[in-house]
Write a structure and sequence with these properties.
The protein has one domain: 2-Layer Sandwich (Alpha-Beta Plaits). It is globular, with a radius of gyration of 16 Å. It has 114 residues and is an alpha+beta fold. The protein contains four helices and four strands; from the N terminus they run H-E-H-E-E-H-H-E. The two termini are 24 Å apart.
Length: 114
């Protein structure tokens, strides 16, 4: 097993910017609104490659309507993450009930490349 410098890992020293995990919550029963906004949201996601490193919906089962999303964001600070969320069509269109933003310290030495 390779020894790792855990202080360096948790500081995300190999990354360009701070990493954040974002848990977004949809309003209950808003599946129809989600479907209406989906095309605009996906176009918006495609225009965010510098900040939005990975994004996807969360659901209780594969066939269930999403209840929100999980993002990994690379940004200079938490304010930049808030600003990103504010421009998402799912936010501006009224789908989001709220979100949680966490500083994310990865546990593996590989650079985030997804």
């Amino acid at each position: 097993m390779t020894a790792h410098d855990f202080q360096q890992l948790t500081a995300n020293a190999d990354e360009d910017g701070t990493l954040f995990a974002v848990r977004l919550h949809d309003k209950p029963g808003a599946g129809d609104l989600r479907r209406q906004l989906l095309a605009a949201h996906l176009e918006w996601v495609a225009r965010q490659p510098a900040l939005l490193r990975v994004a996807g919906s969360l659901r209780e089962s594969p066939e269930a309507t999403p209840v929100g999303a999980l993002w990994v964001v690379r940004a200079p600070d938490k304010a930049a993450v808030e600003a990103l969320i504010a421009t998402d069509p799912f936010t501006t269109g009224g789908l989001r009930a709220g979100w949680d933003i966490y500083y994310w310290s990865k546990a593996l030495p590989q650079a985030v490349s997804f």
